[in-house]
Amino acid sequence: MRFSKRQKVWIVILALALVGLVVDRAFLGSGATSSRAIAAVRAEPPRTVLRRPPTPAPTANQQPLAPQETLSTKLELLSESHDVELTDAVDAFCPSEVWMEQYRAQVDPDSQLSPAEKFIRDHKLKAVIVRDNANTAVVDHFHLYIGHELDGFTLVSVGAGGAVFEGGDSQRVILKLKEGFGQ
After folding, report:
1. Helix (H) or strand (E) run with residue 16 in it
2. Model confidence over 58-75: pLDDT tens digits?
3. Domain boundary assignment for the chain
4. Rounded CA gap, 150 and 163, in Å?
5. At CA 128, angle to CA 126 and CA 134, rounded to 5?
6. Exposure winner among 7, 31, 87, 138, fewest CB in 10 A?
């Protein structure tokens, strides 16, 4: 009878398991706990827990014990001995400014826009009113006269097709009416 390679591997594994069982039973113990061992364990007196004696209160002629040095106390002493100012220490858990700029750019896409681009994106010109004495513009739901301010931009002129706003740093923004409105 010939055995395959797989059958030979299983025979070797079973033989090793059998050898281990024999060694365990013959040399390491019978596996069953004897009644004498159980009786010996039960006969042991219970172990006592060691406790420190209470520290007596200091008497009149005795100095109180010095408080234990804490980590913060040791660090303060170390900083004083090396002339290190603790307020100058950098927070090791604070992320780098480079990382924070990348994070802010991902979280707040508005940080990449100029104030003029934000103004154009956020506001829509709804109507213009051109009169001899006062030109006005309706932006979103605000009725604005020339000189009025909206989000940091001042209305400087109103024409038939749109309104011109001027912001800080002389930024000019032109809001136009949609094609076919007011013309």
Report:
1. helix 5-23
2. 666 666 556 677 888 888
3. 113-176
4. 12
5. 145
6. 87
| pTM for the predicted model, two decimal places | 0.40
Q: Are strands 136-139 and 142-145 parallel, antiparallel or unpaired?
A: antiparallel
Residues present in the chain in total: 183
Burial 95-134 (b: 16+ CB within 10 A, else e): eeeeeeeeeeeeeeeeeeeebbeebbeebebbebeeeeee
Q: Three-state SS for 72?
A: helix
Amino acid at site 139: V
List the beta bridge partners of residue 175: 163
Q: Which fold has domain 113-176?
A: SH3 type barrels. (2.30.30)
List of residues 6+ apart from 153 with CB closer than 8 A: 115, 116, 119, 165, 166, 167, 171, 173
Q: What are phi and psi of 173, to 5 degrees?
A: -125, 130
Q: In this structure, what token pair is assigned to residue 72?
A: 């913060």
39 C-beta neighbours (distance < 10 Å), count: 9
CB contact set of 3 (below 8 Å; sequence gap of 6+): 11
**Kind plus residue range of the DSSP H or E element containing 126:** strand 125-129
